[in-house]
Amino acid sequence: MSERACERTNEHSAFADATDPCSTGDATERACERTNEHSSPESMLAAVLVRRGEPLSVRSVRKPVPGPGQALVRVRAAGVCHTDLHLRDGVPDSPPMPLVLGHEIAGEVTAVGSDVDIPIGERVLVYYYDGCGACDWCRRGLENLCRTPAAKWGFDTDGGFAEYFLASARCLVPLPADLSFAGAAVLGCAGTTAMHVVGAVGKVAAGEDVVVIGAGGVGLAAVQVAIAHGASVIAVEPHPASRDRALEYGARLAVDPAAEDVVAAVRTATGGHGSDVVVDTVGNHDTPGQAVLMAQPQGRVVLVGYTDRPAPVAVVSVVTRETQVLGSVGATLADAREAMALAADGSLRGCVADEYPLTGVNDALARLAGGGVVGRLVLVP
Ligand SMILES: [Zn+2]
Ligand SMILES: [Zn+2]
After folding, report:
1. Shortest-distance ligand to the CA of residue 133
2. How many angstroms is it from 2 CA to the middle of ligand 2?
3. How many angstroms is it from 330 CA to the middle of ligand 1?
4. Residue 285 Cα, ligand 1 centroid: separation in angstroms?
């Protein structure tokens, strides 16, 4: 798959970000301005969060050495996520600092611990959540709910905004042969989250109707994953370019919530019954309540986008229609493997907007904060 398979897709839903989606950067030029700062064999360049709210410091740090169970990954692409802005700005809380950010990581294995049998040179996606492996949730394969995770890379432990990244070998997922590093990295967060929403939590089955509210990164991936499950998908999204992208990905209808009553539109489009599954990737004040009203009796409403404020829901509708309201957080290692399998057969595509060198990390964060980024910005350390 091309690294620029979809250059015009809104990674983050226009519900939150409705600025011009077509602003283009000069990333190709920037990506060629690789730094000539050389790292010694024992050191590497990394973008480090040192102080809350301040630009990341691109500096030379000690290059990690893999111990038992670990692998050293030469980072080839690292996606820049809105979460990185929140971490930088300490919203709601500051992470431990100094911290190398970056949780959407793809690269090549360059060294392994003595007990690790991954071949040197293996191309891998990093599953960013290193569960303890021992608690009841980990034993059920639900590392995303682990009671005492060993690491959440890029959140509480050094991540992938660096030339090299140290991971637990068990969290590395081989890349399909024709999937680029950048194309893989952008699926590491949104793509895996969509797998969890649609599969493990939503249990979407062939022939079902699925509404996806919000056609940002997770939403567009959810559209594709639901279709891969055999569902018929309706997207709800105010931004025209993102609606077009949802249709291109196979949604049968894309509804503009600014132009029409979305609940009525979904009911009409589902023969008056409502949808089997509704996925809310936005989670603002209004969308959970709309999602509940879009679902048919015993329908599943999966909340994955969220706000830290209460959102009103018609409880009488939940009760009288036996609506199942479900939450979904992150993804599991199994979801990451399935995302790569779907990417391998072309069913799941990620969206790379632009590439930046590691030294351009603060430019990338500023551009992301300014809105209007179409697709994911990717660092190429
Ligand atoms: Zn992310
Ligand atoms: Zn655990």
Report:
1. 2
2. 36
3. 9
4. 22
DSSP-derived secondary structure letter, 375:
S
Distance from Cα 40 to the centre of ligand 2, integer Å:
36
Sequence-distant (6+) residues with CB within 8 A of 10 are 17, 21, 215, 216, 220, 239, 241, 242, 245, 373, 374, 375
* Count of C-beta atoms within a 10 Å radius of residue 198: 30
Backbone φ, ψ for residue 109 (5° rounding): -75, 125
Taking the CA of 134 as reference, the closest ligand is 2
d(CA 266, CA 234): 8
Distance 141 CA to ligand 2 centre (A): 9
State the distance from the centre of ligand 1 to the C-alpha of 312, rounded, in angstroms: 27
Q: Which ligand is nearest to the CA of 12?
A: 1
Instruction: Give distance in angstroms: CA of 5 to centre of ligand 1.
Output: 19
Q: How far apart are CA 108 and CA 102, in angstroms?
A: 16
- Arch. (CATH architecture) of 194-327: Alpha-Beta Complex (3.90)
For residue 302, the CA-to-ligand 2 centroid distance in Å is: 24
* pLDDT per residue rounded down to tens, the chain (381 residues): 333 333 323 333 334 332 223 233 333 333 333 333 455 789 999 999 999 999 999 999 999 999 999 999 999 999 999 889 999 999 888 999 999 999 999 999 999 999 999 999 999 999 999 999 999 999 999 999 999 999 999 999 999 999 999 999 999 999 999 999 999 999 999 999 999 999 999 999 999 999 999 998 899 999 999 999 999 999 999 989 889 999 999 999 999 999 999 999 999 999 999 999 999 999 999 999 999 999 999 999 999 998 888 999 999 999 999 999 999 999 999 999 999 999 999 999 988 989 999 999 999 999 999 977 767 899 999
All structural domains of the chain with their residue ranges: 27-186+350-379, 194-327
47 Cα to the center of ligand 1, angstroms = 16
Q: Which fold has domain 27-186+350-379?
A: Quinone Oxidoreductase; Chain A, domain 1 (3.90.180)
pTM to 2 decimal places: 0.87
CATH topology identical between 27-186+350-379 and 194-327: yes
Cα(328)–Cα(68) distance, rounded to whole angstroms? 32
For ligand 2, the distance from its centroid to the CA atom of residue 129, given in whole angstroms, is 10
